[in-house]
């Protein structure tokens, strides 16, 4: 129990101090403004959002972008997106701006809008794929025509206080910075043109800002021990336990019960962990030179289909992945040399949709790994992942002393204890 509390303490401490993600240290969303032309009272800019995060995407209902104008700017027109509110444009006669708010809030258009309202890379309902999964779909763009603004690169004022919701909280954006002007190729690719001025804004994600509790948990089992180590109880918080639904409940046959809510409130199946997602890792087979693990992801939310889901696993043997069945796999090498992290995701049109809770709400795969003679062991829980992320959110692991142990190996292994004490001591030392 003491170790569990220590682990929890460590977890809270690390997630609160981590300004960046250790498994994706360069991950960010960059918002780039390219001024394409000056107008009599302002400029026309193309705003491009690039999701440079390897395994975190922005799911439906999509991103919301906001900022504060530096002066009295207004938005005359937008192509490929819109503001949620027009604001007070009563000062204007004749031509009425699209938005007069000091802090406009912009959302993407839905797919299928008329052609003349579209812009390249627009109109995806705000969905941005993870860069590691689909770089082409990780871009979103729109055009904005700004009035009552500076009309030269000396007089224009950069917007301030950028905010990005994706769709919930978690992103923090830095200030806009003037960067070298973007170069563009003409459609025939024979001529290069250049933006008149460019600025960038970088936004990074922190799970700690996004939510109080984890949103997924991990359970373990193995062929060598009958124990199934389940997810920690209340891993995702039990405050809403009274609202959960039993799988046999009649409420589930009510029409519209699965309809997603605007604020994405989940409708969870009752479990002791109360997580919307559980990842199960089963150590399945031991061969002479290889071993095999089975991975199952289960959705317990009746109101959400996970599109383009991702699963990131950190395990020292992932440098010798031989085969991955029924999922796509990509090694992530965040630090160049340490190859212990990889990303699993669904195969397009096969299992890239993790369906709402119920009969079909799970996806499964197996992975075949070659044993590294120097390090491989079934002892001390070595065969279980060190970290697991679902959709870019770190999942809660069971406490180490509860892992299924190889018969005859000491349950609370010395190695685990030593590392743990070392970690705790280290944290205390760095805090002083
Ligand atoms: C944003 O991500 C890109 C791609 O990983 C990286 O090149 C760039 O340096 C990052 N920007 C910041 C400010 O971290
Ligand atoms: C600005 O953002 C773009 C992506 O939109 C990126 O390619 C470029 O490297 C960024 N520039 C700087 C200086 O960060
Ligand atoms: C502004 O434009 C002038 C020429 O039009 C150019 O020399 C200068 O570098 C530009 N400044 C910025 C900050 O883009
Ligand atoms: C930045 O924007 C947020 C949300 O729109 C607002 O709460 C905050 O007060 C703003 N900060 C400044 C300095 O304008
Ligand atoms: C999930 O997707 C399936 C198939 O596209 C659809 O029938 C179902 O209504 C969706 N559920 C939710 C909660 O959106
Ligand atoms: C990392 O390991 C994978 C096998 O899982 C291998 O395909 C890849 O080449 C390795 N990458 C590096 C940089 O060592
Ligand atoms: C495992 O991978 C590492 C580097 O990724 C390589 O040096 C080593 O030979 C591999 N081991 C086996 C048993 O293939
Ligand atoms: C299986 O693992 C558990 C720890 O989770 C341990 O208490 C038990 O002794 C192990 N079973 C055997 C047969 O070793």
Automatic annotation (TrEMBL):
Domain COBRA C-terminal residue range list: 215-404
Keywords linked to the UniProt accession: Glycoprotein, GPI-anchor, Lipoprotein, Membrane, Signal, Transmembrane, Transmembrane helix
A Pfam family recorded for this sequence: COB_C
Membrane topology annotation: Lipid-anchor; GPI-anchor
GO CC term (a single one): plasma membrane
Signal peptide boundaries: 1-19
Residue spans crossing the bilayer: 415-431
Keyword Membrane: yes
Cited InterPro entries: COB_C, COBRA_pln
Record's keyword annotation contains Transmembrane helix: yes
Similarity-based family: Belongs to the COBRA family.
Protein name per Swiss-Prot or TrEMBL: COBRA-like protein
């Amino acid at each position: 129990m003491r170790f569990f509390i220590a682990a929890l303490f460590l977890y809270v401490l690390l997630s609160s101090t981590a300004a960046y993600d250790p498994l994706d240290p360069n991950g960010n969303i960059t918002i780039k403004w390219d001024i394409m032309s000056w107008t009599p009272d302002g400029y026309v800019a193309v705003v491009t959002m690039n999701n440079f995060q390897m395994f975190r995407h922005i799911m439906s209902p999509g991103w919301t972008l906001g900022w504060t104008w530096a002066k009295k700017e207004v938005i005359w027109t937008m192509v490929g997106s819109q503001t949620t509110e027009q604001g007070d444009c009563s000062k204007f006669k004749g031509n009425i701006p699209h938005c007069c708010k000091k802090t406009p809030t912009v959302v993407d258009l839905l797919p299928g809008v008329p052609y003349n309202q579209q812009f390249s890379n627009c109109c995806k309902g705000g969905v941005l794929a993870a860069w590691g999964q689909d770089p082409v779909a990780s871009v979103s763009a729109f055009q904005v025509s700004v009035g009552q603004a500076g009309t030269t690169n000396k007089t224009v004022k950069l917007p301030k206080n950028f905010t990005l919701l994706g769709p919930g909280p978690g992103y923090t954006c830095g200030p806009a910075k003037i960067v070298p002007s973007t170069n563009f190729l003409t459609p025939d690719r024979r001529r290069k043109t250049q933006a008149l001025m460019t600025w960038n804004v970088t936004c990074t994600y922190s799970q700690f800002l996004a939510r109080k509790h984890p949103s997924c948990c991990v359970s373990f089992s193995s062929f060598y021990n009958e124990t199934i180590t389940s997810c920690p109880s209340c891993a995702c918080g039990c405050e809403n336990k009274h609202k959960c639904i039993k799988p046999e409940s009649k409420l589930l046959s009510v029409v519209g019960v699965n309809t997603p809510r605007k604020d994405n409130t989940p409708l969870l199946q009752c479990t002791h962990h109360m997580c919307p997602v559980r990842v199960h890792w089963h150590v399945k087979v031991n061969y002479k030179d290889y071993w095999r693990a089975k991975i199952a992801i289960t959705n317990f939310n009746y109101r959400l289909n996970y599109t383009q889901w991702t699963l990131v696993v950190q395990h020292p043997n992932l440098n010798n992945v031989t085969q991955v069945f029924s999922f796509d796999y990509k090694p992530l090498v965040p630090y160049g040399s340490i190859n212990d992290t990889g990303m699993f995701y669904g195969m397009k049109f096969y299992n890239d949709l993790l369906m709402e809770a119920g009969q079909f709400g799970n996806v499964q795969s197996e992975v075949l790994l070659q044993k590294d003679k120097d390090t491989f062991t079934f002892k001390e829980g070595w065969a279980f992942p060190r970290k697991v992320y679902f959709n870019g959110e770190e999942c809660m692991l069971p406490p180490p002393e509860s892992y299924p142990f190889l018969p005859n190996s000491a349950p609370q292994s010395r190695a685990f204890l030593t590392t743990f004490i070392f970690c705790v001591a280290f944290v205390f030392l760095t805090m002083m």
